[in-house]
Design brief:
- A four-stranded parallel beta sheet has the order 2-1-3-4, sandwiched between helices.
- The protein is α/β, with parallel strands linked by helices.
- It folds into two domains: 150 residues, 3-Layer(aba) Sandwich (Rossmann fold), CATH 3.40.50.1400; 147 residues, Rossmann fold (3-Layer(aba) Sandwich), CATH 3.40.50.1400.
Length: 404
Amino acid sequence: MAAGTGERRERKPPAASGVHLAAGAAVPSATAATQDGPEHTTRPMDYDAILLSGFGGPEGQDDVLPFLRNVTRGRGIPDERLEEVAHHYRHFGGISPINEQNRRLQAALQDALGRAGLDLPVYWGNRNWAPYLDDALAQAAEDGVRTMIAIPTSAYSSYSSCRQYREDWADALEATGLGATLQIDKVRQFFSHPGFIQPFIDGVREGVAAAIRDGHDASNIEVLFSTHSIPSDDAARSGAGLFTEVDGGGYAAQHLAVAEHVIAEAAPGTSWQLVYQSRSGPPIQPWLEPDINDAIGALDLGTAVLIVPVGFVSDHMEVMWDLDVEARETAERRGLWVARTPTPGTHPDFVQALVDLVQERIFARPTSRRSNTTTIGPWFDVCRPGCCENPRLGFKPAIAGLQP
């Protein structure tokens, strides 16, 4: 295995001021297969390595505030307000599980690549905490890597779940001075891949069966598919403008497509809804609703509540606190049966899906032969112009997509 290491520090790389553009290229710092910006690549590609990109998380009490400063950089949020969120981490000893989960995912992915006959080292770098992305890229370059395909640990289209990763790759390339020599492509958003969806199907089947074993009738079970809420304006700009008729844009449309497929496979006829969690913006700013706690509060007494964290790859803090603590408490206060299904984590089907996403780019697999199980997809290899941009933060350089 390979990973970005380097000296531990408390601050992520500064924002990029510009992005290298190869002569005549539309896509910054991309390989020859994607420089002209097709929605789906049609040329086989030899990559030197994989860049597993995580959100990052603190691994001790002293890390919590510096980590949150990184997450909120540029927003001018004072430490006293950050402490309102910090207590979620402090409740668990200041340790987010996300780094350890990504270590396990890195190892599982490396093993799966070997079994598939792909000799590609997996470098791991985080957006907001060590090991940082720039450390991972610097190590990769020192090892002789010149072309990478990046896998963000997020499945859907939105500013925070796609474009912000692309911006942070741009930051890391500028910080390391590697923008002209290290090329990075990214796998498509993988919400529609059957390997990502299968763990949720398994979880819903098992959760519904558990509720029935505990004496609940199938007609009284409510499945709540939960994902991170985002500002309504950001949601409207997600999905390359293809879902303007959907409340919540491409972000909501993609989640709804996954939820519909999961229910159809795991529990046909079971009542369900898409709900949101973890909103953090000012009260005057509209965010996607309903909040999961409000949805639980509106359910009939006697309902069995099955929470499915469909928006998340692993059990990071917002799953552990917002679902396992707050949402569970809301249900239990009302006397409702409640359970939560697992996230994909290192489920073998999910790990194999990541290998498949890399293979479809190496072999330039046509879209008709790509794994896809929802009514939407397969998604783009190269992000469309302006997709998921956040105008509130101003234009920021981003790679692996068409300008801006």
